[in-house]
Amino acid sequence: MIQISLAAARVNAGYKQDEAAVKIGVTPKTLRGYEQNKVIIPSTTLRKAAKLYGIPSDMIRLPVIEDGEYDENFLNSSTV
Questions:
Q1: CB atoms within 10 A of CB 19
Q2: How many Å apart are CA 78 and CA 80, to the nearest integer?
Q3: Residues 6+ apart with CB under 8 A from 24
Q4: Cβ proximity of 50 and 61 under 8 Å
Q5: CATH code linked to domain 6-76
Q6: DSSP state of 79
Q7: Could you report the per-residue pLDDT of 13-40, keeping only the tens digit for each?
Q8: CA of 9: how far to CAs of 4, 32, 55, 59, in Å?
Q9: I need a labelling partner for 71 at 20 to 30 A (CA). Which of 19, 49, 65, 77 fits?
């Protein structure tokens, strides 16, 4: 599946950052953080953005967060 960045999805839908932020319900600074991968976007906000931009949320490429220790410990544990 082809994925595009959050910023590309916004631009393709014809929205300026400030306008999109208001419609999604976040500040322009917060949306900028999401688009620059400096802030992790909550799933509810991602769904709002995808709906506004007219694309499925799984078409938006998100950063992968690798914290190392948790992932390794989770995979190696036999009990939870």
A1: 13
A2: 7
A3: 31, 45, 48, 49, 52
A4: no
A5: 1.10.260.40
A6: -
A7: 999 999 999 999 999 999 999 999 899 9
A8: 6, 13, 8, 9
A9: 49
